[in-house]
Design goal:
Layout: E1 10-14, E2 18-23, E3 28-33
Antiparallel strand pairs: 1-2, 2-3
Length: 63
């Protein structure tokens, strides 16, 4: 997929303890450990310019 100048595609995978970011379908990637408070119940996204977002949430059920 090609991107217009100044545009990037980000895929962000987030759970309570980690964050992974994939840029332009894997051209670059980064991951980090995060520490989320147990009482946290929301995620906020901000952009410095225009942004088109598609957010999917998956629940993991442990048996």
């Amino acid at each position: 997929m090609s991107y217009r100048e100044g545009e990037i595609k980000l895929r962000i995978i987030l759970d309570r303890f980690s964050l992974e970011v994939f840029v332009n379908d894997g051209e670059q990637a980064s991951s980090t450990v995060i520490y989320t408070r147990q009482e946290a119940d929301a995620i906020t996204f901000e952009a410095g310019g225009a942004a088109l977002m598609d957010v999917e949430k998956y629940d993991i059920v442990l048996d």
